[in-house]
Amino acid sequence: xxxxxxxxxxxxSCGHCKAAVEKAVKKLSGVQTVEATPAENxxxxxxxxxxxxxxxxxxITDEGYTVVD
Length: 69
What we know:
The protein has helices at 15-26, 53-62, and strands spanning 3-10, 31-37, 42-47, 66-68. By secondary structure, the protein is an alpha+beta fold.
């Protein structure tokens, strides 16, 4: 069973931003897919249930982007 996390992320503006966020989140245990969309300031993460929201947010903020709560 897959779970989905949708986040609003500020600061993504280009393909490099997209790649940086996707790479950081894909490294997390349990993550199946990551789709960052800079034009919509959105990141969608599909995971197996073992990934928690806090860890995903930390991975994104560690790359220099802001997760909007």
